[in-house]
Amino acid sequence: MVARSLPVLQQDANTRKIDAGRLRQFALDSGADDAGVVEIGDPELEDQRADILKFYPKTKSLLSIVCRMNREPIRNPARSVANLEFHTTGEEVNDVCRAIVKTLESQGIPAINSPMGFPMESDKWTEKMWVVSHKPVAVAAGLGRMGIHRNVIHPKFGNFILLGTVLIGEEATEYNQPIDYNPCLSCKLCVAACPVGAISPDGQFDLASCYTHNYREFMGGFGDWVEQIADSKNGLDLRKKVAREETVSMWQSLAFGPNYKAAYCLSVCPAGEEVIGPFQADRKGFLEEIVKPLQEKEETIYVVPKSDADDYVRRRFPHKKVKHVRGSLLPRSIPGFLTGIQRTFQRGQSAGLNAVYHFTFTGKENVKATVVIQEKTLRVADGHEGTADLRMTADSETWLGFLAKERGLLRALLTRKIRIKGSPKLLVAFGKCFPN
User: Fold this and answer.
1) Per-residue pLDDT of the chain in tens (436 residues, 90 and over written 9)
2) Which of 30, 216, 351, 378 is the most exposed place for a label (fewest CB within 10 A)?
3) What number of CA atoms fall less than 13 Å from residue 294's CA on the CB side?
4) Do 128 and 51 contact (CB within 8 A), yes or no?
5) How many Å apart are CA 267 and CA 289, to the nearest integer?
6) C-alpha span between 269 and 271 (Å, rounded)
7) Distance in angstroms between the alpha carbons of the first and the last residue of the chain
8) 93-98: Cβ within 8 A, 24+ apart
9) C-beta of residue 331 within 8 angstroms of C-beta of residue 341
10) 8 A C-beta contact, residue 5 and residue 143
11) Are 328 and 308 in contact (CB under 8 A)?
């Protein structure tokens, strides 16, 4: 495909701006199915701006693009078919963004494209290892809204899309605005299909349970698999811990690209002008054809012991095999710990707990924070607020080592590296909320 030229509009001797219409058309001609332009100062990017500018300080405008995925492969219970579609479309996104950057650069316009998915900045795992969050950029650029399943739903293509972003060091003549409605139907089919119960009917999202199962062959799950090999006495002992088909699946992910275990929330979503027809015409038929095969599929579901997902799978999908694995979202810093507990909080495990915790971290990281757990909700605040039911003072390195199971709590208490004031039962109850 030969893309059209993209001239830069010279406003005067000192100012130039990119023609937003031509930029968008160029993206479409390069292979994108939709595109929008947003400025770096857009209020919708308030919580993303600092990270974007840290990655690419020249950024003045952002071009967000959409590439459609084929729906039938994503919906099929055979996940090899679905993953082929994910990877192939992801490569298309990267190719489109790279072609745009190449042309912009040839015309003296500074620009850079970040990866659609992988590779990422792996030295920053388990914290934010991606350089640009494509979803909020796409929402700001008018390419859709976030559904309760935490995927962007395009008004036409639904959630059967992958996203890319090009950061541009010039201003544009105009910018897109977010669409004024959410295509999400609140049909809750994503709730019904999720094998680990990560999506709640009230819109809450359990990142830890989703990550543990769906991303089993990525990052942390792969690391856990390697540690199981290291911990095994011999091949026979390893086979007691890891089924041969799991090892084959890991090999396949290493050789051909990591495989998602589910992504059923995408599969069953009926939103979008091009997608909604069959659902509206025959809802019962849609459920029978699209949703039930995923629900009834016999498969292994990976969960952390005593997590909400552990309870959910056994209750909701007794025909699916549950495999207990170790949690891998372990923080490397105290800020990472405080951010992480907001992502890994298990509402069901917190039932009956209503307490205020004051944390004081010392040593390499000096941080004070308040954690409030009340009526199955969690709130984290800087500093110490209110009256604490339990106060904990801990050397930061010791606490992080304890979370990683590299240091024992009893020894830390005896050496006063960790000190608590209040009932120890409250510390135990706190830990129960984060089995990951």
Assistant:
1) 445 555 554 444 467 899 999 999 999 999 999 999 999 999 999 999 999 999 999 999 999 999 999 999 999 999 999 999 999 999 999 999 999 999 999 999 999 999 999 889 988 888 889 999 999 999 999 999 999 999 999 999 999 999 999 999 999 999 999 999 999 999 999 999 999 999 999 989 999 999 999 999 998 899 999 999 999 999 999 999 999 999 999 999 999 988 999 999 999 999 999 999 999 999 999 999 999 999 999 999 999 999 999 999 999 999 999 999 988 888 889 999 999 999 999 999 999 999 999 999 999 999 999 999 999 999 999 999 999 999 999 999 999 999 888 888 899 999 999 999 999 999 999 999 999 7
2) 351
3) 28
4) yes
5) 11
6) 6
7) 48
8) 93/65, 93/67, 93/162, 93/163, 93/164, 94/164, 95/31, 96/27, 96/30, 96/31, 96/32, 96/65, 96/67, 96/164, 97/65, 97/164, 97/165, 97/166
9) no
10) no
11) no
- The length of the chain, given as a count of residues: 436
For residue 7, the one-letter residue type is P
Name the one residue in this structure whose structure tokens are 């492969």. Answer: 73
378, burial (CB in 10 Å: exposed 0-12, middle 13-18, buried 19+): middle
CA distances from 266 to 76, 97, 191, 230, 236 (A): 11, 23, 11, 36, 38
CB neighbours of residue 211 within 10 Å: 24
- Global model pTM greater than 0.85: yes
Q: What CA–CA distance (Å, rounded) separates 323 from 299?
A: 10
Q: Are strands 355-362 and 111-113 parallel, antiparallel or unpaired?
A: unpaired
* Domains annotated on the chain, with CATH: 8-172 (3.40.109), 189-324 (no CATH), 334-432 (3.30.1050.10)
Our measurement of the distance from residue 376's CA atom to the centroid of its chain's CA atoms, rounded to an integer in Å, reads 22
Closest CA to 141 of 108, 164, 113: 164
Whose tokens are 């042309």? That residue is 103
